[in-house]
Amino acid sequence: MTNAQAMLTALGDPTRQAILDRLSDGPRAVGQLAADLPVSRPAVSQHLKVLKDAGLVLDEQIGTRRLYRVDPAGLEELRRHLDAFWQRSLAAFEQRTREEESDD
Question: Rounded CA gap, 19 and 23, in Å?
Fold first, then answer.
């Protein structure tokens, strides 16, 4: 599995999508994230681990707190993957359209 595929798999869970969305507003601690979500603090921690392992989230120890934030490099990698997918899809659509036109 490529790293981009691991990222897409990680984002297949709605809770992880919500966490990443909240982190896009800025760094947050687990408790802050859990307060906004209908899951427990330990569940948020587990979701953050999946996002971190996939390369979408970074964490940093600041004093006694651990803050999580979006990893811009990970998002850039995911965007490149999605852009390439989109380009391949458009090229395939264009080719199919031309084939249909030539059949007429």
Answer: 6
Gap between the Cα atoms of 62 and 85, Å rounded: 38
Distance in angstroms (rounded) separating the CA atoms of residues 73 and 33: 22
Helix (H) or strand (E) segment spanning residue 66: strand 65-70
Note the pTM of the prediction, 2 decimals: 0.84
Instruction: Report the alpha-carbon distance of residue 56 to residue 6 in Å, rounded.
Output: 10
For the beta sheet containing 57-62, the strands, ordered from the edge strand earlier in sequence to the opposite edge, are 28-29, 65-70, 57-62
Q: What is the pLDDT of residues 88-100, one digit of tens each?
A: 888 888 888 888 8
3-state helix, strand, coil in the chain (%, to 5): 65, 15, 20
Alpha carbons 47 and 42: distance in angstroms, whole number: 9
Q: What CA–CA distance (Å, rounded) separates 83 from 61?
A: 34
